[in-house]
Amino acid sequence: xxxxxxxxxxxxxxxxxxxxxxxxxxxxxxxxxMGWYRQGPGKQRELVAVxxxxxxxxxxxxVKGRFTISKVNAENTVYLQMNSLKPxxxxxxxxxxxxxxxxxxxxxxxxxxxxxx
Length: 117
Fold this sequence. Notes:
This protein is mostly beta strands. Helix content is 0%, strand content 55%.
């Protein structure tokens, strides 16, 4: 059974930093593309950052230069380092694991990030 467990969310002041973690189990972690998505109040879920199985990264324009996605295959864990946080970053952040060639797509339960002004 596949589990993606996020941690590291919380309340932080604008300008602060948080580091999210997502521990995966039940999948061949190293062959999956891993991503972070977020859903703010009254908004649709949106892509924040993705890291491919080969380590290539891509970011939403709104977080470029502030957020960094990384992974440690040996730990089956993907991270999202978030710096210079803004109130508009407030959202539930979800971890995603995707393997396109097998049509596999898994989600974590989400972790709340709240940025106060």
